[in-house]
Every structure is written in structure tokens, then in C-alpha cells.
From TrEMBL, chain A:
Domain of life (superkingdom): Bacteria
All residue ranges annotated as the Putative glycogen debranching enzyme N-terminal domain in the record: 8-192
UniProt xrefs under Gene3D superfamilies: 1.50.10.10
Protein name listed in UniProt: Amylo-alpha-1,6-glucosidase
Domain Mannosylglycerate hydrolase MGH1-like glycoside hydrolase: 435-601
Biological process (GO), any one: carbohydrate metabolic process
InterPro entries in alphabetical order: 6-hairpin_glycosidase_sf, 6hp_glycosidase-like_sf, GDE_N_bis, MGH1-like_GH
Automatic annotation (TrEMBL), chain B:
InterPro entries to which the protein is assigned, alphabetical: SCP2_sterol-bd_dom (IPR003033), SCP2_sterol-bd_dom_sf (IPR036527)
Pfam families recorded: SCP2 (PF02036)
Annotated ranges, domain SCP2: 22-104
Organism, scientific name: Micromonospora costi
The name this protein goes by in its record: Sterol-binding protein
Length: 686, 125
């Protein structure tokens, strides 16, 4: 597949070829997308019947792009007498495109400029996963100054409206301009393309949701500037860190997405372009990683996920009361229940992570109001762990889909079908209790107890949660510990058998604090040992395991977000040097990608490839990867809220030199943190 | 209008809090289109307590559908969110009340508790 270029704002995005054209064909991924629907599958510009080639492409922001084009083959460039500037910008419910045709000849010239347009109104899922037959009808209407493309299935309707500022001959498959341009003169037209989500009465559903929000390009520019100005400022000796920090801030700005339920409270989408929607796990983890940079993301994520919390038993959606959702999709497949994302609840980790994020958020911000507002949801989440998560009734958190057709087999972050296996590669039966889920459940109970005691005035409930957490910790260290390997099993099967593969999941256990202190040394030795540590980071699955594959999505690759949580865990247990090794490896890798880490890279040993081999993935930026450098920075500087203070205990590898993170927001106002690899002195000011 | 619809709202008014959260407040008006015009039902939620009346007045969210489809919702045969995405119901107002509808209507018929499944082998990937 050719590299596609794109502009986007939340779930509204345009993916095109390098000349700005969209020519999707039946299997292509490009298009103009909104609300999980492709609104344009063709958008092809010609001048006098000739396709155009890009001399240059400029993308000043994530929502704006300019193409400088000439007709014909590259050999013709030298004597081009006409060129075209194509400026595209996301705005409102679609995008605007300004075409400027420049006549470089010293005489008047006639041109025929055509934009061919079409749409298949394909749902995003059928583009990224599998093509599906759809029974709806496509229609096309030529109107005064506009072309209207539509899709209708029962009462479900989507329309693409293409309007032009200059007169054009419009037919059902595009717009044609017959123009005459004087010597060294130019001609311009502006096209506006809107993707409409229509009700039977022909009105857009979004106009009937209050408050109704759309943003112009000007507002997007102002917001980006404000976002960058509000974030803590980083100065540091190592360029890789500076570039990565800046890149992550800009990317995170583009990932922010305003859900319909809270249009004024943007939360991070899981990834762009294909997961630009309300998600549980990725939004929770990204908000957690970025708490000291943009705490408002956690506020939005918690409120939105609280609104969407499970209320019913629903097998198709794997929903249970109190459960936090996995993903919501607005498209046709959700509407007609051909896919379960309306929303889908098939994640076993989102519910404890919700409690963990709320507690951590309050520790940073002192926002007791949100803890009060979300008391009932948080209690319901904690109750879910015991009532519905504990499928076997033995005090562990298990998962098993009740939707055999389209539910997920694995419901932790490693959700590919082969992610959870024995050493010999055998897949365990269902249900499964993966180890990191037990860590999250433990942490959720400990943190829930603090919230109950300090904010809900319910010490009895707090005591109960603490007793349960202590019992879980004890039980876990007994049942999951593999004596002959000296690490924690990846999972348990229903009969109590240990799924004995060595995996990165054990690193999350340190973050959660469920590991007995006496065992931490062994866990750290595994994490930094040759089977798990590649030199670029901790592999998802250890070398030597039956299903290990350096290019296996969840069975051998190295994931930056996974490593950021592991580094946090190492720091928690006092292994600052080891945390520093992971942080340094990650930022070293980031440098190869101009500061934008890929979702994962291959698990090859570092001394084999010398550089990190990116795994080809659909989403970039990817929220939890984008925010991983923030968490690594927190780990390096040893930032920890304590009461109303920010504790700063830097521990930096020599490579980092000096790091200054200024204006860290929190309940203390703003605080600066300065770390120096040489001398390792903590300092704080203001 | 049908007895099934009146019965649904009667039960809703008597159910107290049902599956609503204690902090929930707001008004949802249902405009149900039948053979003899549009009938209005106003659901007023105050701190999770439900009250039903036949008033036709402003509400935080207005839900419009026909009698036949409403009866399907009332029997738990249709899910409000998917119905909204399909335009089988249309709405005016705040989205969070659309999300909340599933707490007013019966859950899907025949749904199982996760513990009711017996452990088994993994389905082939």
C-alpha cells in the first residue's frame, strides 16, 4: 500500500494519495471519513483530462494540508505551463478544499478542470477488518451548485454534499469547470464537502443534539496554540527527548475527540485514523500516562465512560452492570447489530482501570468534586469485579465472551486470538484469568478504599475493600507463582492450571503493587533478562516460548506503552536504574522515528538489527504510544503526588544529562521539576 | 396507542429507581406516533426517582418513534442505542439521555450471567 497522507480532527478525517486524490477502489483505505463512515471513496482531480503529480506537500497542522501540483509525468515538470495548488482543511462536518489554477503562459489559455467524486458509504470496520455485503441503496442527485451522494438502508441515511463557490457543470459523478485564464493569471474555486448523518426528515442528527458543536479551522488553530501553551515546558540535554516530547504533545492534540455525550470535554481517541472513537482501555491508559501533562483528559474520559457504564446483562455486547465499555462505533454495522460496538463491553481491564484512573486523577488534581460525582459509578465498577468479573467465584478476575459470533476471545490489552498461551504454544480454555487483570483488580480495591474513606465517608466499605485486596494479593502470590521458572504465570485456566508462558504482563504486576517484595528481584531479572529484553524494550512474549515470533502482534513485539507501565512498576519497587534503562531504550528508538514511536516494533535483538524495526500498524498516532514518553518522563523525574505536594526524586541515566520540566499542573498549582544525571539532585521551585 | 404502552409507563412510574443511578435527574418526553395522532408521555427523573405523566411540555430530550417500534423497545426486543443509530427512534436534546434509555427499557431477553456458562475449550482462532 502506498503511503497515504491525511488531515484529521477527531473522527473526521481525509486520507489521500500524495497528490491529494482519493481513489479507494474496492479494497483501498483512502477516503473522507466521519462518524465511522466513508463519505468519499473517490475524489480525483484532473486538468485537461490529465492526472496531477505533487511537487511538494506541506502539512502545517494535523487538520490542514497543501499540495503543489503539476499535470503529467515527472519528465514534463520542467516546462509546465500550468500548476495547481490544492489546499485542504478539516472544518465542521467535513472539509474545505481550495483549488488555485495558475497559468504560467504569456497568453490566455482554456482549461478543463474536473473533480470526479463518488462514495461507497462503507463502514470503517469493513475497510479495516473485512469487507461486508450491505443491502442499502446508493443514490446521486445533481442540485443547483451542488452534488449530493447518498446511501439509504431502511431509515438509516448518510449523505455527502459537495458544493462549489464557482460555477461548474455538475453531473452525477463529479464537477467540471470550463475556465479561461489570462496570461500569468490565476483562477480559484472553493469546494466544501460535508458528511451528513441524516434522520428520515433529512436533518442531521447532530444538529438535534444539544449542545451542538462544530469547529472551524480558525478555532482549531487557536485550540492547538492554547493546548501547547498550557502543557508543561520541557528543556533537556538529549535532543531525542525534546523532539519526542514536542511530537507527542502535538499528536495528542490531534487525538482529542469530543464525544456526543460531552461535546465540550475532549477525551483521547485510541488511535488515528481507524480508532477515532470513544474507547475504554486506550483512553483510560492514555489519560493516566498524561496526568501530569494534561489532567483534563482524565476528567473527560472518566465522565464519558461513567455515562456509558454497563447497566444490563446483554450477551451480544458482553455487557454487565457496572462494566466500563470497550468501544463505541456510530456506523451502519452498530446500527443494524451486525457488529456489537453500540457500545461493546468486551474488556475485562477497563473497569478496574476506571477506578485506578479516578484515584490517581484526584491525587494529582485535588478534584474531589469528580470523585463525589462518580461515587455511584465507581462503586458499581468495584462491585462488577466481584459479581461479574469473578466468573469462577474464586476471587480472581476472569473473562469469557458470551457473543460467540463477534465477541473477543481475549479481553485484556493483548486481545489477539493467540496472545495467551502455554509455553508449548497450546491455547488455554475459557474462561481465562490473565495475571495483569489480578494486579489491576488489586490496585482498584486499594485505591477504591482510599476514595471510600476520604471522600465517601464509608470506612466500613474501605475496610472491606482493603481486606479483599490483601486476600487477593496473598492468593495471587500463591496461585500464579511458577516455582520452576520463578515468575508469575501469564494466566490461570478454569481448573486452576497455570498458563505458564513468560510474558511482559508480569511487568504490569509491579505497577499494580501486587507482587510480594521478596519476589520483585526475580521479576526484574526476567524483565531485563535476555529472553524478555530485546535491547529496545521488553517483549510481549519471551524468546523461546512456543508462540514467540519477533513479528507477532502480541507474541514477541515490543510495545512502548507496555514498557512505560513496566518502567513505572520498576520505579515503584525501587528499581530506578532498570526503569532508566527502559526509558533510555524507548527514547533511543523514538529518535529513529522523528519522535513518533510506532505502536510496536519487532522483537529482534538490538545487536542483530542495530535499529528498531517498526511493526506495520494501522494507527499512528496511537494514543497510549503517544503518551508513553510522558509517563517515562514522570518515571525518570520520580514525580509522585503526596498530599498537597509534588515529590520529585529524579534518577536519570547519564545519557539524559539534565531535564527540566517546568509548570507541571496539579493541586499544588504549577511546579517545576529538574533532574540531573550528574549529581542526581532533586530540586523544585515555587 | 395501545394497552402495552400504557402498561409499560405505568410500570415505569411504579418501579421507583429501577436501574437508574441516584444522581440522575432530567426529563425525557416520548412522542409516540400512532393511528390516532401523537401521544405524549413525560418521564421526570429526580435523583433517580421516576415519575410519569401525560404532559406535553419541554424536556431535556424528546424521543420520537411510532407505537409499533415502541412496543418492541418495551418488550426488550430492540436496543435503544442501535435503534437511535438506525433512526428507528429520533431524538432532540442531550445525548446522555439517549444513552440512559437502556436503563428505562427491559434488557435483552435471555441474556446470561457470565457465571452461567460452563468452562470450555477455546474456540479455534
Amino acid at each position: 500500500m502506498n503511503e497515504l497522507v491525511r488531515i484529521l480532527d477527531g473522527n473526521n478525517f481525509v486520507l489521500s494519495d500524495g497528490n491529494g486524490d482519493i481513489d479507494a477502489g474496492p479494497r483501498g483505505a483512502c477516503g473522507f471519513f466521519e462518524m465511522d463512515t466513508r463519505f468519499l471513496s473517490q475524489w480525483r482531480l484532473t486538468v485537461n483530462g490529465e492526472r496531477l503529480n505533487a511537487l511538494a506537500v506541506d502539512d502545517p497542522h494535523h487538520f490542514e494540508m497543501r499540495f503543489f501540483l503539476v499535470p503529467g509525468k515527472p519528465t514534463h515538470y520542467v516546462d509546465a505551463t500550468v500548476s495547481v495548488i490544492r489546499e485542504r482543511c478539516i472544518a465542521g462536518t467535513g472539509f474545505e478544499e481550495r483549488l488555485t489554477v495558475l497559468n504560467h503562459a504569456d497568453r490566455e489559455v482554456d482549461f478543463t478542470v474536473r473533480l470526479a467524486a463518488d462514495s461507497d458509504f462503507s463502514p470503517v470496520y469493513s475497510i479495516i477488518a473485512k469487507p461486508m455485503e450491505r443491502p442499502g441503496q446508493i443514490y446521486r442527485r445533481v442540485e443547483e451548485g451542488r452534488l449530493r451522494l447518498g446511501y439509504r438502508r431502511e431509515k438509516f441515511r448518510r449523505e455527502t454534499v459537495i458544493a462549489t463557490s464557482e460555477p461548474a457543470r455538475i453531473d452525477e459523478y463529479g464537477l467540471t469547470y470550463d475556465i479561461r485564464i489570462g496570461p500569468h493569471q490565476r483562477w480559484m474555486t472553493t469546494l466544501r464537502v460535508d458528511g451528513l448523518v441524516l434522520r428520515p426528515d433529512g436533518e442531521d442528527v447532530r444538529e438535534h443534539i444539544s449542545p451542538h458543536r462544530t469547529r472551524t479551522a480558525g478555532q482549531l488553530r487557536v485550540e492547538l496554540d492554547r493546548w501547547l501553551a498550557r502543557a508543561p515546558q520541557l528543556t533537556c540535554d538529549w535532543e531525542a527527548l525534546a523532539i519526542t516530547y514536542r511530537r507527542s504533545l502535538v499528536d495528542l492534540a490531534g487525538l482529542r475527540f469530543a464525544p456526543l455525550a460531552l461535546p465540550d470535554d475532549p477525551m483521547p481517541a485510541a488511535g488515528l485514523p481507524w480508532a477515532a472513537t470513544v474507547t475504554g482501555r486506550d483512553s483510560l491508559l492514555c489519560s493516566l500516562q498524561a496526568l501530569h501533562v494534561a489532567p483534563e483528559l482524565a476528567h473527560a474520559t472518566l465522565r464519558v465512560l461513567g455515562i456509558g457504564q454497563g447497566a444490563n446483562l446483554d450477551d451480544f455486547r458482553d455487557e454487565e452492570p457496572g462494566k466500563i465499555l470497550r468501544q463505541f462505533r456510530y456506523g451502519e454495522l452498530s446500527a443494524f447489530e451486525e457488529r456489537p460496538e453500540s457500545p461493546y463491553y468486551g474488556s475485562a481491564d477497563t473497569t478496574p482501570l476506571f477506578v485506578i484512573l479516578l484515584d490517581e486523577y484526584e491525587r494529582w488534581t485535588g478534584d474531589a468534586a469528580l470523585v463525589t460525582e462518580l461515587e455511584e459509578q465507581t462503586r458499581a465498577a468495584l462491585a462488577w469485579i466481584d459479581e461479574y468479573g469473578d466468573i469462577m467465584g474464586d476471587g480472581y478476575l476472569w473473562y469469557r465472551s458470551r457473543n460467540g459470533a463477534s465477541g473477543l476471545v481475549n479481553q485484556g490489552w493483548k486481545d489477539s486470538p493467540d496472545a495467551i498461551s502455554y509455553r508449548d504454544g497450546t491455547l488455554p480454555g475459557l474462561p481465562r484469568a490473565t495475571c495483569e487483570l489480578q494486579g489491576y483488580a488489586y490496585d482498584a480495591k486499594v485505591r477504591g478504599a482510599r476514595l471510600a474513606r476520604e471522600f465517601w465517608n464509608d470506612p466500613a466499605y474501605a475496610d472491606r475493600l482493603e481486606r479483599e485486596a490483601a486476600a487477593l494479593r496473598q492468593r495471587f502470590n500463591r496461585d500464579f507463582w511458577i516455582d520452576d521458572g520463578e515468575y508469575f504465570a501469564l494466566a490461570l485456566e478454569a481448573d486452576g492450571r497455570q498458563v505458564d508462558a513468560l510474558s511482559s504482563n508480569i511487568g504490569h504486576l509491579l505497577w499494580s503493587g501486587i507482587v510480594d517484595e521478596s519476589r520483585a528481584d526475580r521479576i526484574v531479572a526476567h524483565l531485563l533478562g535476555p529472553r524478555l529484553f530485546s535491547g529496545w524494550g521488553v517483549r510481549t512474549l519471551a524468546k523461546g516460548e512456543g508462540r514467540y515470533n519477533p513479528l507477532g502482534y502480541h507474541v514477541g513485539t515490543v510495545w512502548p506503552f507496555d514498557n512505560s507501565l513496566i518502567a513505572w512498576g520498576l520505579r515503584r519497587y525501587g528499581y530506578a536504574r532498570e526503569a532508566g534503562i527502559l526509558a533510555e531504550a524507548m527514547l533511543d528508538a523514538a529518535h529513529y522515528f522523528d519522535g513518533r514511536l510506532p505502536e510496536s516494533f519487532a522483537g529482534y535483538d538490538r545487536d542483530v538489527t542495530r535499529f528498531p524495526v517498526s511493526y506495520p500498524t494501522a494507527n499512528s498516532p496511537h494514543a497510549v504510544t503517544t503518551a508513553a514518553p510522558f509517563l517515562l518522563l514522570r518515571v525518570l523525574l520520580g514525580l509522585q503526588p503526596l498530599g498537597d505536594n509534588l515529590v520529585i526524586m529524579p534518577s536519570l541515566p547519564a545519557r539524559f544529562g539534565r531535564i527540566e520540566l517546568l509548570d507541571i499542573p496539579g493541586r499544588w498549582g504549577r511546579r517545576d521539576a529538574i533532574g540531573n544525571a550528574h549529581g542526581q539532585r532533586a530540586s523544585a521551585s515555587r | 396507542m395501545s394497552d402495552a404502552i400504557a402498561r409499560f409507563f405505568d410500570d415505569l412510574g411504579r418501579s421507583g429507581r429501577g436501574r437508574l443511578e441516584k444522581r440522575t435527574s432530567g426529563t425525557i418526553r416520548f412522542d409516540l406516533v400512532g393511528d390516532h395522532g401523537v401521544h405524549h408521555w413525560l418521564v421526570t427523573i429526580t435523583d433517580g426517582e421516576i415519575r410519569v405523566s401525560r404532559e406535553n411540555r419541554d424536556a431535556d430530550t424528546v424521543v420520537r418513534t411510532d407505537d409499533a417500534f415502541f412496543r418492541r423497545l418495551a418488550r426488550g426486543e430492540a436496543t435503544p442505542m442501535s435503534a437511535w443509530l438506525r433512526n428507528d427512534i429520533t431524538t432532540e436534546g442531550e445525548f446522555r439521555y439517549i444513552v440512559l434509555l437502556r436503563r428505562l427499557f427491559p434488557p435483552p431477553v435471555g441474556a446470561r450471567h457470565p457465571r452461567s456458562l460452563t468452562p470450555g475449550p477455546a474456540e479455534p482462532a
